[in-house]
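Dear H.,

Thanks for agreeing to be a second pair of eyes. The structure we're designing against is below in C-alpha cell form, covering all 348 positions.
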C-alpha cells in the first residue's frame, strides 16, 4: 500500500488525513499577517502550512496584451503580472516564515514555480515540494523538483488521465520516490458538484499513488466526504478573515473552520475502520437489553408450554427469540414463576 513521509509524518491510507493549510496570497502583502496565519494553522491542528514561491517575472510576462488580461471572476480587470505582483510571497520572507513555522512545530513547505524557487527552497531545507495544478504540465519543473529527492505532491486540476500519468512519469524519471497526487478542481471557488469525488478511488487504483484532495469549495463537506473515498491528504486555502479583501480570501477557511476540518476529517477516517461484523466494545453493555424469551405466566411442573406462557421481550437474559418454536409444546421441568427468563433447564 502506497505511503510517503514528510517531516517525519507518515501519510497514506492507514494514517489519519494529512491536513495542509494553504497560505497562498492571504498575507495580503504583510509579513506579520503571514506569521499570524502560520500560528493560527498550527493552533487549529493542521499538519502543514504551504507557501507559494514565485515572483511575477518567474511565472508570467509583464505584458498588457489580450492574452495576459483577466476577464471576469475574482481577479477580473488585472493582467496576470499585476495579479502575481500583488499575490506573491516576497522571497526575503521565506526564511523568517520557515523559522517561525519550525519554532511552532508545524511543517512548512511550498509550491515552486520555477527552478530558482526550488533553489531557494533547497537552501531552506524544505522537506517536500508541491506542484500546482497549472504547473502539472511543466515536466521540466517537475523533474527539477524531483531531482532533490524530496517527497512531492502534484495537484491535478484541469489535467486529464493522460496528463496525470505524464506528470507522474516526469516525477518518477526525475528521481522522486515518494509521490502523492491530489484530485483538484481549479475553480475559485469550485462548486461541489464539479468534484466528482468517486474519481478518487479510481485514481488510487489507476496510478498507485497516495491520493488526496485539493479542495476549493466553500465549506468542509466535500473534503470530509473525500476521506471516506480514500483521500489521505486534504489541502484547503486558509485565511484569518474571509472578508480581508485579498486575492484568495473569499474562498479560504477561517480558523474555526480549519479546526473543524482537522477534527472532523480525523473522525471520518477513524469511523472507516475495517470490515468487522463482530460485537463492538461500545455494544457490550447493551447486549443484556436485546430481546429474549420470558415466561409471562406462572406454571406448574409437568404443564405443557404454550404461546400464552412465553413472549419475546426485553431484556436479553433468556433464550434468543429464534428458539420460540423449540420451546412451545415442551413440558415444564419445574414450577416456573412468571417474569423469569426461559432457559434450557426449564423444560424438556
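And this is the sequence the design step returned. I haven't edited it by hand at all.
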Amino acid at each position: 500500500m502506497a505511503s510517503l513521509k514528510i517531516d517525519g509524518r507518515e501519510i497514506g491510507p492507514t494514517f489519519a488525513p494529512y491536513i495542509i493549510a494553504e497560505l497562498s496570497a492571504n498575507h495580503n502583502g504583510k509579513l506579520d499577517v503571514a506569521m499570524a496565519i502560520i500560528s493560527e494553522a498550527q493552533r487549529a491542528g493542521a499538519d502543514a502550512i504551504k507557501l507559494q514561491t514565485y515572483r511575477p517575472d518567474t511565472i508570467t510576462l509583464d505584458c498588457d496584451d489580450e492574452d495576459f488580461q483577466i476577464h471576469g471572476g475574482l481577479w477580473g480587470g488585472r493582467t496576470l503580472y499585476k495579479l502575481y505582483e500583488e499575490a506573491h510571497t516576497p522571497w526575503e520572507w521565506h526564511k523568517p516564515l520557515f523559522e517561525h513555522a519550525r519554532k511552532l512545530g508545524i511543517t512548512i513547505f511550498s509550491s515552486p514555480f520555477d527552478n530558482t524557487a526550488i533553489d531557494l527552497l533547497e537552501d531552506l531545507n524544505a522537506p517536500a515540494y508541491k506542484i500546482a495544478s497549472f504547473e502539472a504540465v511543466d515536466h521540466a519543473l517537475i523533474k527539477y523538483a524531483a531531482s532533490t529527492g524530496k517527497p512531492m505532491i502534484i495537484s491535478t486540476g484541469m489535467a486529464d488521465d493522460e496528463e496525470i500519468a505524464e506528470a507522474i512519469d516526469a516525477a518518477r524519471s526525475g528521481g522522486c520516490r515518494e509521490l502523492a497526487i491530489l484530485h483538484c478542481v481549479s475553480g475559485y471557488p469550485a462548486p461541489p458538484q464539479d468534484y466528482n469525488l468517486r474519481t478518487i478511488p479510481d485514481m488510487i487504483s489507476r496510478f498507485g499513488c497516495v491520493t488526496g484532495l485539493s479542495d476549493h469549495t466553500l465549506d468542509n463537506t466535500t473534503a470530509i466526504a473525500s476521506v471516506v473515498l480514500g483521500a489521505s491528504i486534504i489541502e484547503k486555502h486558509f485565511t484569518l478573515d474571509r472578508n480581508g479583501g485579498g486575492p484568495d480570501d473569499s474562498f479560504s477557511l477561517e480558523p474555526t473552520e480549519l479546526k473543524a476540518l482537522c477534527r472532523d476529517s480525523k473522525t471520518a477516517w477513524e469511523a472507516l475502520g475495517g470490515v468487522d461484523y463482530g460485537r463492538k466494545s461500545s455494544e457490550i453493555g447493551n447486549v443484556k437489553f436485546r430481546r429474549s424469551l420470558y415466561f409471562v405466566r406462572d406454571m406448574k411442573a409437568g404443564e405443557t408450554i404454550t404461546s400464552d406462557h412465553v413472549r419475546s421481550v426485553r431484556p436479553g437474559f433468556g433464550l434468543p427469540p429464534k428458539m420460540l418454536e423449540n420451546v412451545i409444546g415442551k413440558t415444564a421441568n419445574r414450577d416456573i414463576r412468571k417474569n423469569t427468563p426461559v432457559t434450557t433447564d426449564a423444560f424438556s
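Two observations from my side: The chain has two domains: 11-272, 281-346. The chain has a mean pLDDT of 96.

Warmly,
E.
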